[in-house]
Write the structure tokens for this entry.
Amino acid sequence: MSEIFETIKSRFNSGNILMKFIFINVGIFVIIQVLYVIVTLFRLESLNLLSFLAVPSHFNVLLSRFWTPFTYMFVHEGFMHILFNMLWLYWFGNIFLSYFNDRTLGSLYVLGGLAGAFFFIIAYNTIPLYLESGPGVMIGASASVMAIVMAAAFYRTDATLNLFLFGRVKIIYIALVIFVIDFFSLSSGNNPGGHVAHIGGAIVGYLFATQYKKGKDFTLPISRFLDRIANLFKKRKDKGAHKVVFKRAESDYDFNYRKTQESKKIDAILDKLKQSGYSSLTAEEKRQLFDAGEK
């Protein structure tokens, strides 16, 4: 079991930001599923972990769970939900990284998720159809993934992807089809809040691509913020790794005693060398003799 964890840790540390995001999403999904089994077995239904990670539409609840616009974008409940999100993230994330760096992808993922949360909250507090449905909550990386999909598609409109049964298709057509499906799903009863979030992420991705072509990168503030967080953890790690130990000053008596003992050890090694030869010395004795000769 320890070897499995070491392998996962090694691949996480050596992977790019895309693989790190996939590892984080899958890891959180597994933890939630394990906790769900424990909660069910011990009848702890009152302990609802998702309620503390999902972004709520109600402003009063949001104020008491202000961290949820960030946490919700890494949380999934169903297997098919996380499977399709991670597949889309992997496919289009690799296309995105062929034009941009890790920092930009990470920042756009966060911005897309925040935009999705913003659109979801605003829609559920202003649009009559959603107001009638009452307060809701939302989880999933879909808005973040949509931002990356749209950014990759609109930055290089001629880029293609090989689809089963369809052959090579321009990714901009794929992105537009997904956007149209989300738009016409806004009035459906099947997860309308999720489709609203997709629209928010898509708009951020489109704006990023068009503005970047003009020489403007609005992900830079997020990149600097994430760099500061990463540097904080790095400084803590370095601080622990380079621990300074202050030793008590050695007295003249202790110094003379230590030198006398070292001299006796060297004399004993030299006597053994004369009697039995160099091959009779142990590795430690050879090291001590070598060190004495260097002084």
